[in-house]
Write a structure and sequence with these properties.
Helix content: 55-70%
Distance between the termini: 46 Å
Number of domains: 1
Number of helices: 8
CATH architecture: Orthogonal Bundle
Number of strands: 0
Order of helices and strands: HHHHHHHH
CATH class: Mainly Alpha
Shape: globular
CATH superfamily: Winged helix-like DNA-binding domain superfamily/Winged helix DNA-binding domain
Oligomer: single chain
CATH topology: Arc Repressor Mutant, subunit A
Length: about 180
């Protein structure tokens, strides 16, 4: 199983990769996607980073039980992330619905203050628009765009059909476009 998971590095003997090396490669590849997905679902970047840490701790402790025949690593890790977000809201006694953050995410992108202010306003507006979607639509949007999953992977994760996921994404994006004020 391990040689199927490792990166296609031609100079490395895939069978000789240790579990730790394989997991480290997968961590490097999937951590940004998991963090982005969780950022779609929680109120601030600090919480998203904390939950992302929990996700990879759980994944590492259960990595010996992962089977590539059952699901891809991306689907498996995002399922763990989804459950961690649910656990977070259960522990906090909050609804799982997306809520607008009152805390600013601080990431230096090298933008001018004016550009940064415009981007921050657009992000705040997008969060308000996302909050108007149903819980299911928010989850699917977060998995599709935050977790960079295919429709098929989203469908498998949520127990829906591929076509149902496609329809929900289409309608949710249309709602977002309409509420955000973007013309076709």
């Amino acid at each position: 199983m391990l040689f199927l998971l490792s990166s296609p590095d031609k100079n490395k003997d895939k069978a000789s990769c240790s579990t730790a090396e394989v997991f480290a490669e997968l961590y490097e590849q999937f951590m940004p996607k998991v963090l982005r997905y969780i950022s779609y679902r929680v109120e601030d970047i600090d919480t998203a980073q904390d939950i992302t840490s929990v996700v990879f701790e759980k994944a590492l402790s259960k990595f010996h039980g992962f089977r590539v025949e059952k699901a891809s690593f991306g689907t498996w890790i995002l399922s763990i992330a989804r459950n961690a977000v649910i656990d977070h809201y259960r522990a906090k006694g909050k609804e799982r619905e997306f809520q607008q953050s009152s805390k600013k995410n601080v990431i230096d992108r090298g933008e001018s203050p004016d550009d940064e202010m415009v981007r921050d306003e657009e992000v705040a507006k997008l969060k308000l628009c996302l909050a108007q979607l149903s819980s299911q639509e928010q989850e699917i949007i977060a998995l599709k765009f935050g977790g960079e999953m295919t429709n098929r992977q989203v469908a498998k994760t949520l127990g829906l059909s591929d076509s149902n996921v496609g329809i929900i994404i289409y309608r949710a994006v249309r709602k977002l476009r309409d509420s955000f004020g973007i013309e076709k």
